[in-house]
Amino acid sequence: MADAAERPGTRQRPGVGTTSVAVFRSRGRLTGPAAALRRFQRGLERPLTPYYLILGSAALILVLGLVMVFSASQIEARSDGLPFAYFFDKQLTSVCIGAVLMYVAARLPVKLHRALAYPLLLAVIGLLLLVAVPGVGTSVNGNQNWLRLGGPIQIQPSEFAKLALVLWGADLMARKAQLKMLDQWKHLLIPLVPMGVLLLTLVLAGGDMGTAMIICALLFGLLWISGAPVRMFAAVGGVAAAIGTLLIAFVPHRLNRLSCIGVTTLPSDGSCWQGVHGIQALAGGGLFGRGLGASVEKWGQLPEPHTDFIFAVTGEELGLAGTLSVLALFAALGYAGIRVAGRTQDPFIRYAAAGATTWIMAQSMINIGAVLGLLPIAGVPLPMFSYGGSALLPTMFAVGMLLCFARSEPGAKAALAARRKKTRNKQDRGGLVGLPGRTIARLGKARQRRER
C-alpha cells in the first residue's frame, strides 16, 4: 500500500497525521461568514441590483410612511375637527398619483427626460414668480411659498424647483461634457450657478430656508460630479456660507433655531420646544418602541408630528429598530443612485442620477439631523415618508427617473432580455405538457423552420 503522503488528495502534517480528502479539498474555499459576505458582494455586483434596490427601498419607505402618517396625524386631525383618517386619505391619494408619475418616469426614454428640462424650468420660474404676487401666493407657517389651486388643493412650487434644477443642470453639463468644455472654470460655473442663484432668490423671497439649503446642496453635487477643483468649491462654499450667515443673523427665528442645536432640556423662556420634545420622543421609544399608535408626544406636545418630525414619532413608536430600518432604506436608495451614476457612460444619466440622489439624501440628512438635534430645524419633510403631496410628487418622479436610468445600463438591458427569453421558453414548454413526444418534436421542428 502506498504511503499516505503519496496519495493524491491528502497532505501530511507533523504530529497530526493525514487529513481527509474532503477536508483538503475544502481548503482555499470561503466558508461561514466569509462565504456569506462574498455572496452578498456578488449580489451587489449584478446588473439589475440597483434597479431592485431603488424600487424596493422606495416602495418600503412609502408603505412605512403611510403607516406612520396614519398613526402620527390622528390627534392633529381631531384637534382641527377633522376625521381621524383625514391626513392619511390625502397622503394615500398623493401616493397613488405619485405611483403613476413614477411608472411614467420609469418608462420614458432618456431623451424625453432631457426634453423636459427647459419646459419644466420655465414653468417652475413662472410659478415661483406667481407666489410672490400679493393675493395669489398663500402663506403657511409664516412662509409665502404656496399657491392655492382651489378648495383645499394647494401646491408648493419650490418643491418642483429641485426636480427642474436636476434635469436642467444635468442636460447643461452633459452638453458641455460632450464639447470638452468642463476643463474651464467659467464653463463649470456659468450659467449653472447664476440659474441656481435665481432659483434661490425666488425661494428665499418666500422665506423657505430649508428648500434653499437643498438647492445649494444640489448645486454643489452637480459641480462635484462635473470635476470642479477643490479651490473652486472653497470659493463658492465661502460665498454661500457668508450669504447664509447674513440670512440667519437678520431673521430672529432662524437665529433661535440655530441656538437650539444640541439642547435636550427646555430653557426657562420656553424656546426650543419642538426640538426638545423631538429628542424626548426618540428617547421614550427605547429599543423596540412603545408600540404602533402608542406615542405620547403626538398628543399635542410635539408640533408637526406627521410632517417635519415624523421621524421622532417613528422612534417613539417603533424604537431604535424602526429608526435604523428607515436609515437603512435611505442608505440603500442612496447606494443604488450612486451606483447608477458611477457605472453609466451617458453623461446626462450620470449628472441627473447624481443630482437626484444628492437631493434625496441631502433632504433626508437635514430632516433627520434636525430631529436628532444635530442641525437647525429647517422645516423640510422626510422624502416619501412625511405627509405632503407637493414634496411627494416630484420626489417620486425623480425615483422613477432613477429606475429608468438603472434599466438603461447595457448590462441591465441584457439581463432583462435574457429573463424575458427564459420566461417565454418556460411558457412555451408549459403549453406542451401532456402532448405525445412525437407531437412535441413535430412542433419544435416547425418552430425552427419558422425562425429560419
From TrEMBL:
Reaction(s) the record says it catalyses: [GlcNAc-(1->4)-Mur2Ac(oyl-L-Ala-gamma-D-Glu-L-Lys-D-Ala-D-Ala)](n)-di-trans,octa-cis-undecaprenyl diphosphate + beta-D-GlcNAc-(1->4)-Mur2Ac(oyl-L-Ala-gamma-D-Glu-L-Lys-D-Ala-D-Ala)-di-trans,octa-cis-undecaprenyl diphosphate = [GlcNAc-(1->4)-Mur2Ac(oyl-L-Ala-gamma-D-Glu-L-Lys-D-Ala-D-Ala)](n+1)-di-trans,octa-cis-undecaprenyl diphosphate + di-trans,octa-cis-undecaprenyl diphosphate + H(+)
Pathway the protein takes part in: Cell wall biogenesis; peptidoglycan biosynthesis
Family annotation (InterPro entries): Cell_cycle_FtsW-rel_CS, FtsW, FtsW/RodA
Keyword annotations of the record: Cell cycle, Cell division, Cell membrane, Cell shape, Cell wall biogenesis/degradation, Glycosyltransferase, Membrane, Peptidoglycan synthesis, Transferase, Transmembrane, Transmembrane helix
Keyword presence, Disulfide bond: no
Enzyme class: transferase
Superkingdom of this protein's organism: Bacteria
PROSITE patterns: FTSW_RODA_SPOVE
NCBIfam families, A to Z: ftsW (TIGR02614)
Role: Peptidoglycan polymerase that is essential for cell division.
Family the UniProt entry places it in: Belongs to the SEDS family. FtsW subfamily.
Protein name: Probable peptidoglycan glycosyltransferase FtsW
Species of origin: Streptacidiphilus cavernicola
Primary gene name: ftsW
